[in-house]
Amino acid sequence: MFLDLANPAITFALVNLFGIAIVLVVIARRSIFAGKTFFMIAIVSTLWWLFVTIMELSSVGLENKVFWSKLAYISVCSVPLSWMFFLYDYSFGRAPAKNSKRYGLIGAIMVAIMVGSLTNSQHLLFYGQDTRLITDQAVPFVIYDHGPMILVFASVIYLALSGSVAVTTYAAIFSAQLYRPIFRVLLLVALIPVVGNIGYLLFDFTIFNFDPTPFLFTFSLALVTWLIFVTRALELDSIATEASFLNTSDAILAYDRQGRIAGSNTAAQVQFKDSLPAKGQKIPNGGPIWSYAHKHLNATASPAPGSIQLGDRHFDIRLVPLERPLHRGNPIMGWILYLRDTTDVLALTTDLQAESLRLQTIMKHNAAGICVIDKNSRVSYANPVFARVFGCDIQDILNTNFSESIWKLRVRTPDLTQGMRPSTYVKKYGHIVEGVKIEITRSDGQIRILTVTAAPLDDHGRVVISAYDITGQELASKALREAAQRAEAANNAKSQFLANMSHEIRTPLNGVLGMAEILSFSTLTSEQKRIVTTIQTSGELLLGIFNNVLDMAKMEAGQLSLRLDPMRPLDIAGRVNALFAEQAKANNLVFEVRAQGDGNEFRMADELKLIQILQNLVSNAIKFTSTGHVLVRIILEPDGGPLELTVQDSGIGMNDADLGRVFEAFQQADPSITRQYGGVGLGLSIVKSMVDLMGGEIEVMSHPGEGTTFLVQIPLSVVSSS
Q1: Which residues contact 341 (CB under 8 A, 6 or more apart)?
Q2: 254: three-class secondary structure by DSSP
Q3: Do the strands 590-596 and 629-636 form a parallel or antiparallel pair, or are they unpaired?
Q4: N or C: which end of the chain has fewer CB within 10 A?
Q5: What is the pLDDT of residues 341-396, one digit of tens each?
Q6: C-beta separation of 662 from 644 below 8 A
Q7: Across all residues in the chain, what is the average pLDDT?
Q8: What burial letters (b/e) apply to 147-162, b meaning 16+ CB within 10 Å?
Q9: Cα–Cα separations (whole angstroms), residue 569 to 371, 576, 598, 692, 712
Q10: For the purposes of burial, counting CB atoms within 10 Å of the CB of 1, is it exposed (0-12), middle (13-18) or buried (19 or more)?
Q11: DSSP letter at 277?
């Protein structure tokens, strides 16, 4: 087998082969553009197609020609597919990273074709047995008996070719105005192999009696390469440059040294409107813009930028020279004029300057000392208050390091920063710390206490610190604590004194009451019995007062505690009735004690204090009720519910002001009550303290002349059956 260069078909194929090889080299060295990989796959596949075409044309005998024809099928499918994928990727600007599945598809098809074609003799899917060699005008060529796989190939080819035309048609219609001319050219290029292949199949159009498709693809690829090489139309930097020129907000004009307009962008057309000359016409005279342009028409270098004002708008104006490739004399052949609207920038700059001044004023007069330290712990900013707190000048602080001994810092709240200084903690962990107390010793020897907040300022390791001098507050707090301690000590001494006095007075008083009781059993005259009764009544009243004073002293000293034992809460009903039934009868009052609930249920409670609560409430009710009734209800709610104690009377009642202070120690409605009914106003205060101690609640409801009702609820835990 040899290459017969006298055969025009072989020569034509070789020319195409070398031409497409040059295209491959050119494309490989160009900048990256969308779809470049598929474009190169199409070129390589076309090279292979041309190569096997040359080998088939040069072969002698049916078997050799069929062998090379089989190998051509690899390119028959891969070229249209990669061509379609290239046009799609370029049109939609897809990134190469998204193409892995399509690379796999092309590779899988090529492998399947290779295996299927080389095993054709076993299945005859590619060529049937009627494939034969004939000679026409001394040129041998093969008449192929195409198998069913040809239909598959045809479907793939025409699907890919149709996709190519569809993509470029869509792009030519709907793409941005900037790109439509490029896509219209690409649409024509995409139609070339389609039209050629249809002509081959329907009208027997051939090139040297051979399928024209590979040659037409070569022509299309060469045309696209020419576009890339000459116009750089597909390169991203070229597209970006043109897009920037057309879409920038700066007005741009290009004109030659004679002042003739060579081009303008959209912003210039909007800015100048009807005053913009048409392309090829000279720029007009008058106005700050055109005067600036005329002034520098014959300059030999780029002039200094300027600023102009048009109405209420401000603009920066500058010229960029267009230099000649070769020159003798003036190197400038034209100018590009840039006009940038800086009105908003100037307004923003003014606002920023005002804001900066405002912030400086705030920082200067802020009540807090504020400083900024850099990543090396050096102070880069400090306001006057910060310098005043540390007792030195700002210049003495700037550029000093917080780690230096001159600061004499000591962390007084190490739990917030693990013992580290706030700035060190923020740098290490990046968290804000607040309320860290720092003790400093100033250069004048004063010890000051500061509360410090530190926070990260930016990603460069800078930290902003604010410090308040709280030395005065700390001294005041210390004085308050000392005063509170003294007051507490005095209160404890008072409570101890009251307890001792109550005990010392109660002992002889019990002796007096005992003697009076013994004397009452002796033979006495009626006058003597009256005197003894008065002694007993007065002594019992005085003893009750002492007992209340002793309980109040215990409560103030925190010595009042509960003794919880199993008891049946409803049993206290009988004890209350026994204690007060005679007294109520003597006062002509209806007295009734009602118990409701399971009387056999045991709860954990302090029985003595429950009785003491009821004693105080019932005693008050009887004392302040001259006629009517006193009703006591003791209700034990089932299923672990609270114990409810209700004492209701029809006595003198209380107004809203009295209700507001009814539980305060040494308080009664008014002085006349003390004179009329006696007592010192401790009973209800003691009741409230005991109810609170038990975790309960007490409420009072009353109206003047309508009586009073006290409701007490106390939670009591259930005693287990075990």
Answers
A1: 249, 313, 314, 315
A2: strand
A3: parallel
A4: C
A5: 888 888 888 887 877 777 777 766 677 888 888 888 888 888 888 888 888 877 87
A6: no
A7: 79
A8: bebbeebeebbeebbe
A9: 68, 12, 9, 18, 14
A10: exposed
A11: P
